[in-house]
């Protein structure tokens, strides 16, 4: 769980920086932003050529930022699960990393099958 606390804490800090960068980019583009117009001005500007374009740009920029954040979260999840799977596989082999790397696992399949399946199978009625 320490891994996930660290990842989410770093993502939170980076997310705040990303939000500031996206907001700065929108401000530098000098586009209209939702909620910035007064309510009495909204009917005049809502269907103007610039306001519609600006709202599409605003939605595209924030949507792209959100998708990147979600994709990054999925990347860290896959990386964490892969790391956890590797550690568990090494643990199950008695921390013998050299056997995991140097052993030819395909050649050992018949022997392991015989040891674990055939010999461990219950004997039937022998008349």
Please give a structural write-up:
The longest helix has 44 residues, at 49-92. The chain has helices at residues 2-28, 42-45, 49-92, 97-102, 109-118. It is an all-alpha fold and 127 residues long.
Whole-number radius of gyration? 29 Å
Number of strands: 0
Average pLDDT for all residues: 84
List the uncertain runs.
none
The oligomerization state is single chain
Alpha carbon gap, first and last residue: 56 Å
Helix segment count?
A: 5
**Class derived from helix and strand content:** mainly alpha
What's the main sheet like?
none
Question: What is the approximate shape?
Answer: rod-shaped
Beta-strand content bin: under 5%
SSE order in H/E notation? Answer: HHHHH
Helix content: over 70%
Summarize the structure.
The protein has 127 residues and is mostly helical. It is built from 5 helices and no strands. The longest helix has 44 residues, at 49-92.
Write out key terms for the chains shown:
about 130 residues; about 0% strand; mainly alpha; rod-shaped
Topology overview:
Layout: H1 2-28, H2 42-45, H3 49-92, H4 97-102, H5 109-118
Helix pairs in contact: 1-3
